[in-house]
């Protein structure tokens, strides 16, 4: 039987698994509870057991598994396969997670941060296919990023390359969770977009969002885009500023690595074409005139599966 690859995506609540063939077609997927409070050894053992189960469930044996890829939030030494720390998993400190998984499964393993696995998934099988130079954003509570340069993920000196959410676009501006001021994450993530709208409504700027705040006690990013689509001026302004700030980062990155594609993913892309078109418009308005830029700005295609697909693709590409 042909070889298969396992892709794993560790989240704070669940761990997702996918079984893939050599062309990264998905054969089967499932998930287990993360149970992060049990610590690294128990979790890796449970992951090993579930790999055996999902392999058998799909009529393969563990002999057929060629390699395993795993993505997770957290800080890593990717060369050594060590998880330094993870906000979702406080017990995981300086854990040699790749070696533990490799010992448990007797397979070659690769570990990556989850924004990079999602990026690699879109590169291998999604919106970034065929584009060896690509920049990827996840727009959620924060802004994650990944960079494909000449067909490879960019890691940098200390594996923090591609942290695009912390590009400063407003010097001296809003304090970001990272300690810098003015990061794109502090303005244009879903949470930050909602926060800017909430602050404006509390400051008595007229808006239909006031009713949302009065009724629900909070304004979501989705509310901002829904009310913008209905023509609320404040919501339109906030949504447009978010798109402009994202376009600024695209222009910065265009001048850094000259990607052919910018791929946006995450919960905020549910805002749809109005968001995408606004990013494209601001990009076109602000980009230099030195030459005509042949660049595509688009949404991700793989949804929640991008993590397991990317992890399996990285496993397939282990040298
Ligand atoms: Zn930051």
Short account of what is shown:
The protein is built from ten helices and twelve strands. It is of the alpha/beta class.
What does this structure look like?
The chain contains 10 helices and 12 strands. It is α/β, with parallel strands linked by helices. The protein folds into 2 domains: 4-123 and 305-316, 2-Layer Sandwich (Nucleotidyltransferase, domain 5); 130-300, Nucleotidyltransferase, domain 5 (2-Layer Sandwich). The strands form 3 sheets. The protein has a 5-stranded mixed sheet with strand order 3-2-1-4-7. Strands 10-9-8-11-12 form a 5-stranded mixed sheet, with helices on both faces. The chain is globular, with a radius of gyration of 21 Å. The chain starts with a strand and ends with a helix. The relative contact order is 0.15. The site of zinc ion has 6 residues, from loops.
CATH names the topology of the largest domain as: Nucleotidyltransferase, domain 5
Radius of gyration: 21 Å
| Main sheet makeup | 5 strands, mixed
- CATH homologous superfamily name of the largest domain? ATPase, nucleotide binding domain
Q: Quickly give the structural class.
A: alpha/beta
Helix content: 25-40%
- Return residue spans where pLDDT drops below 50 for at least 5 consecutive residues: none
Instruction: Please state the average pLDDT score.
Output: 96
Overall 3D geometry?
globular
How much strand content do the residues show?
15-25%
CATH architecture of the largest domain: 2-Layer Sandwich
Number of domain modules? 2
**Total beta strand runs:** 12
What is the first-to-last residue Cα distance?
A: 22 Å
Summarize the helix and strand pattern as letters.
Answer: EEEHEEEHEHEEEHHHHHEHEH
Strand order of the largest sheet: 3-2-1-4-7
CATH C-level name of the largest domain: Alpha Beta
Bound molecules: zinc ion
